[in-house]
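User: Fold this one for me? It's Short-chain type dehydrogenase/reductase.
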Amino acid sequence: MSGLLDGKVALVTGSGHGIGRGHALELAKHGATVIVNDLGTSLDGQGTGKVADEVVQIIEDRGGKAISDFSDVGDEESVDLLVERAYSQLGRLDIVVNNAGIVRDRAIWNMGVDDFDLVMRVHVRGSWLTSRAVARKWREESKETGDKVYGRIINTTSGAGLQGHFGQTNYSAAKAAIVGLTQTLSLELASIGATVNAISPGGRTRMSATMAGAAAPIEPDERSEDEFDPKDPSLGSPVVAWLASPEAGHVSGQVIKALGENIQWLKGWTPISAVSNGGKRWDANKLGTIMGVDVFGTRASGLRLGG
Ligand SMILES: NC(=O)c1ccc[n+]([C@@H]2O[C@H](COP(=O)([O-])OP(=O)(O)OC[C@H]3O[C@@H](n4cnc5c(N)ncnc54)[C@H](O)[C@@H]3O)[C@@H](O)[C@H]2O)c1
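Assistant: Here's what I get for Short-chain type dehydrogenase/reductase.
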């Protein structure tokens, strides 16, 4: 054990399978006591199960410390109780990794409103609820001691949220919202010393296995650390462990793509061209040329933008 996270208590939501399972194993390896939360639900959010127990068992067999939790991250009361339980049973909660997720993919004309609501509920409301519960605790602690706290929140976005993906209007909207949540929460928690970042992970999980042609999922404990497989969903987990560690106290409000052996620092929505009308209102009749030439720079070639 490296001790990078010795003495820390971490909650990883949806850590029964896939990417979250990799995070839970990684955080435990570095000395954190991990709350392995998982509702044990299907890929599209139906049913419940006790898969979290399996992960706790693996961590304990490897000499680490973990407890399981089967709460639904979209349920306010359960999430508040889960955070209370961390404090009453483990004495603290230093790290929250919001990873739980489901998909209900369909082109928008075939998508039901329940497919939209449930995906938003797990990803957005789920990440917001855990964040609110722990932020209240950290703020209380900071007020009592008059000092900064040790606090790390790591959210999970995705390429679909950052660039869009056909058939995932619900999921992309949720994953983009998580970036907004990350940036705003980072501002709100800065004064008490907590950091909030997001990762964009990947790997062959049961979620990505739904994409056409994808092979069977890989569970992180099926691979030894010496056996490199670019599709191993736990390859981004060292980045999560580092963001959760004292070494990353200066990093907040950032989005990091942690995919395979690659780490990319992403920046979105920076202006790529700009025009100003010198203190006057624009005239829509005159905007065609200005937009084509000065803003998009495409008029000459007649290129379509996007899609
Ligand atoms: N797999 C990829 O390539 C990929 C790419 C980008 C982002 N992501 C994101 O990574 C995260 C993990 O995805 P994965 O691929 O490992 O999927 P997965 O299906 O293997 O794991 C998701 C886990 O979340 C749990 N879960 C679902 N709803 C829950 C709820 N309400 N409360 C608690 N737990 C719940 C599930 O039971 C499951 O164990 C998700 O947020 C996903 O959007 C995945």
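One thing worth pointing out: Helices lie at 18-29, 51-61, 76-90, 113-145, 159-163, 169-189, 237-243, 287-295.
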